[in-house]
Amino acid sequence: MQADYPNASLFKRLAALVYDSLVLTAVAMGYGAAFLGVKYGLFHTPLATDERASMGTAGFAGLVLVIEAFYWFFWCRGGQTIGMKAWRLQLRHDGRAATISLPQALVRGLVGPFSLLLGGLGYWWALLDPKRRSWHDLASNSRVVQLPKG
Asked: Model's pTM, two decimal places?
C-alpha cells in the first residue's frame, strides 16, 4: 500500500507549469514548422509577396490538440509531466493511489486553461480550499501530491 502523500502547494504546481511551458514552447515550434512546411511546401499554398505565413484556424486547433495531448499522455501514463517530475509532483485519482483515467485527463484539459485564463482564479482557488485543490482538480476528481525526496 502506498503512503498518502500531502497535496502539493500552489507555488510548486505553478513552478511545474512554468517548466512544462518551456518544453511546450519547443513542441509548439516543432509543430508550427511541420505544419507550415506541409501547408506551403507540400501543398504549394500560394503566398503573396507581402503576406506572412499563417497557420490559420486549422493550424491553431491542431496546436491546441498537440498541447492537450502532451498533458493527457503524461498524466495517464505515470501521473507526471516533465515539470512535475522536476518538482516531485504527481497527479493521482482523488481517493486512490492511481493515475487518472483518460476521461479525467480530458476534463482536466478542458477546465485547466479556463482556470488560467480567468486571471488564474482556478489556481488561486487552491489557496482557499482546505485540501489545496484547484478547479481542475475538483472537476476531474484528482489531486496533485508532493512526493518525498529520494
From this structure: 0.89
